[in-house]
Design brief:
The protein is an alpha+beta fold. The protein has two domains: 3-86, no CATH class; 93-211, no CATH class. Helix content is 43%, strand content 12%.
């Protein structure tokens, strides 16, 4: 991929957008999700997931902010995590985003497991260091082990990444019980879980608003006129 340099900064390379050939920052499309990087004015430290497949997905490579904006506006890309700006816990994910994140985690676990099995067609020549990393990654995904990965801010896992970890745990469970081939690609499980998780979001929102309304009613009922200092 051709790399150019901004006239205002001789140290930082800018890339040609894989979609429009314009100037793109370090925002990389992996085919499943985007990871916004340095130089992006709207997506720095943000992660987005494709909720469409096939020809609607941009080619792999660096993508400019304007092209990402269009994909988001068209309902093809959805932001599921950000470390700067908006609080990621407030992102309202769709069932499709939950589905894709769950499926991504499940496929990652499936590949991690079978790539280390000598009887597997996906077997990669075992490297002790790679095997150790695979074990540590699986341990972290299943337990949230802070020894493996600890955020200085100590915030809870954002819901987007939580969906990835739940998909990962699903695949490990399916492999453990010998039924991972019953749902190739974990498509059915991802669809079912995504719909259920979105329904849970709606129910939690309903309960929250109901509780908020009840609290406001109680406060209004308990409200009395001030006595202006009179006994």
């Amino acid at each position: 991929m051709e790399t150019t340099y901004a006239a205002s900064d001789d140290c930082w390379p800018y890339f040609n957008c894989a979609t429009c050939d314009g100037e793109a920052s370090d925002t990389d499309n992996t085919g499943i999700m985007f990871h916004g990087g340095y130089g992006s004015t709207r997506y720095d430290t943000s992660s987005l997931v494709w909720i469409v497949r096939g020809e609607d997905v941009f080619p792999h490579g660096y993508i400019c902010d304007d092209c990402i904006d269009r994909a988001v506006s068209d309902g093809k890309l959805e932001k599921f995590h950000t470390s700067l700006g908006d609080d990621e816990t407030g992102l309202n994910l769709s069932a499709a985003a939950y589905r894709e994140l769950f499926a991504y985690g499940a496929r990652k676990a499936y590949h991690t497991f079978w790539s280390q099995r000598e009887d597997s067609p996906y077997y990669e020549e075992r490297n002790p260091a790679a095997l150790e990393e695979a074990i540590k990654d699986m341990r972290y995904r299943l337990s949230g082990d802070m020894v493996v990965s600890c955020s200085v801010s100590m915030k809870r896992i954002p819901i987007g990444w939580e969906a990835v970890d739940i998909g990962y745990a699903h695949a490990v469970s399916a492999i453990t019980f010998g039924c991972s081939e019953a749902d190739p690609g974990f498509e059915k499980a991802a669809e079912t879980w995504g719909s259920a998780r979105k329904a849970l979001d709606a129910e939690m929102d309903r309960c929250w608003h109901s509780t908020e309304e009840m609290f406001e009613a109680m406060m209004k009922e308990a409200d009395i006129e001030p006595d202006n200092g009179k006994a």
